[in-house]
């Protein structure tokens, strides 16, 4: 029975899954319901055309309200590397079921090393045709322990990994000069802006992190927004850079138009096209050389900044309404969504009209909506299987 339920859940996630780096130091490890969900995928959903408080750290479904357990940090060893597991569901990482459902790939399945689909890989949903085309991902750091103090102006990209997301186990390099964090740790962010292959969305997630083995006291500087500088290195933003914020309704920090050198619509990303070298970003230490950093003052309270029940209720209801928009990813998916039942259409209408009623949803209603999402994803799976046979 349990195995059967698990299999069903995992099968459903294979199809609509996007990707996120899993680690015990992440926010939202257990999901956003308040109980532990070993099969959660609450953090993997893409962010597209949202107001700032909804895209920032995946606020639309309350991820920032679910900190990691006390004492759990993403550890960043100065001058060395750290590992995260990029996957579409916690159930496909070693953080659940002793890793029984893991493979080399993010969705617990197996593919050839030179996995390539001219029409884009959709399983898992990597937003790329192959490894070479994978856009690149990044981690950024803010020298505060309080997630509420983190803003685009103090969240600095410190490491980039070209050609990711790709396989599950992914390493990022830490600059040797990273100074130590405040006693309560730092807040890190992960970002991914895919290069085409579906909705031009982005991914932005929070982590509690700390630098280990720090020997330097050079502080990180104030970051500037990256700019598009493909084949024009002199035009790139030098020194510390902000994360890329793109295609949202508010808070974008980069604008592009026209085509890139490959003749595709420009899509800013954590790679050379926006002036990010692969690996540790060693040019970010332009701040005053003080104790630990120029970051905003912070207390040691991050470890105990538990979830706030009030915001949780509000955010999880906005989650379900946002999902209606956010999950519409490919042409195929649109078909599945428009073919879904009237209750999700009603949810979409309520969300579109911004109905205040919609904000205070009962637990039962939220459960019903979750079930509805599940049905939709299964419908999408069937649709895709039919489409796949058609190719
Ligand atoms: C990756 O995909 C692109 C776009 O389809 C293609 O031009 C390129 O040849 C592919 N590279 C590999 C190594 O398959």
Automatic annotation (TrEMBL):
Residues 367-378 have a biased composition (Basic and acidic residues). It comes from the Eukaryota. Coiled coil: none annotated. One of its GO terms (molecular function) is monooxygenase activity. Transmembrane segments: none annotated. Residues 286-324, 333-357 have a biased composition (Low complexity). Its cofactor is Cu(2+). Residues 285-391 are annotated as: Disordered. One of its GO terms (cellular component) is extracellular region. Keywords: Copper, Disulfide bond, Glycoprotein, Metal-binding, Monooxygenase, Oxidoreductase, Secreted, Signal. This is Uncharacterized protein.
